[in-house]
Hints:
It is a single chain. The chain folds into two domains: 30-183, Invasion associated locus B (IalB) protein (Immunoglobulin-like); 187-348, no CATH class. It is of the alpha+beta class. The strands form five sheets. It has a six-stranded antiparallel beta sheet. A hairpin with a 4-residue loop joins strand 19 and strand 20. The chain is 16% helix and 36% strand. It has helices at residues 3-18, 114-126, 147-157, 203-213, 216-221, and strands at residues 30-33, 36-40, 46-50, 63-69, 78-83, 88-95, 98-106, 109-113, 130-134, 137-140, 186-188, 227-230, 235-244, 249-257, 264-267, 285-286, 289-291, 296-302, 310-317, 322-330, 340-344, 346-348. It is built from five helices and 22 strands.
Amino acid sequence: MGARRIFGLAATLSAIAGTASAQGPKPGSLESYRDWTIGCDNRDRCEAVSLLPEGGDWPDKPVMLTISREAGPAADPEIWISRDAKGRETLSFLIDGRKVTGAASMDGEATLQGPQASALAIAMARGHSMEIRAGSQRIATPSLAGSAAALRYMDARQGRAGTVAALVATGPLGRGAIRPAPVMPWVRRAPIPDGVAPPALWREELTAIGNFTHCAGEMKDASSPPDLHRLSKTETLVLVPCGAGAYNFTSVPVIATGIPGRRSFRFAGFDYQPGWSEDARHPMLVNAEWSAESSTLQSYAKGRGLGDCGGSESYVWDGTRFRLIEATAMGECRGAWHWITTWSAKVAE
Length: 349
């Protein structure tokens, strides 16, 4: 099965599991228009990202272009350019052979904001070809195919269609007609107790947790034993190794309670299932990372080794379950190493 099909299946399974509860988070979906893909989060912040043309080869020095915009009447677009480069330089942006604007770049990163970004985005939507130059040297020719459709989607999603602030679907209405941004949800973080690391699982417990998770065979082949992280005085997060590939390492998150040697196990609870969880009762993390300082658990699944597609979820432990605070995704394996944010939430102590 190809990387794109694998990621597409994972995203579908995650969406099904994550929307099972009407109260759970509902990350936004992605839309692709020829050589551009776009997505918006729960606050209607949208990002449109350039892709390599279908079937195109990975360039020696790739350049990625992103157009983002916050929701709300006052927000203007922002354009971000990223590439592997060192030092300071001045970039020029040409549409159909005509220079529209320029920007200073430091170590391969450049950002355009306000009227400058609006002018370039509008020119991109109307143009046929684009060229980015560093001084007199051409460094990239991002495809504009699909950019107008992506920006039209952004206008509609943010309620700008028919207003003077739209990038494509312009109209006579003023900015006052644009709806405000939705309120960002918040999640309360449970503090993690300081102190000694939880004791390792006993031999009998390793057998029990392997049978419980159905990962006994993968545990034997794993390069390291399960990871244990204290959540409270009575609860421990156990990340049980359950398979590995070239660049994705899967684990099952389990909560252990009780005294060492006789601990009981249950699957960790999530308000939105991690991306590769095929069964809502059996969560599966990929390349999992835990931070006790921020009570955060992250799952990060690559669609292929280049890292230009996949999905990630970040969760905060609230004392009962893991709550989604950020989700990102890139469904097209076509040169975009920046994944689009599809969900965001604030964290409160």
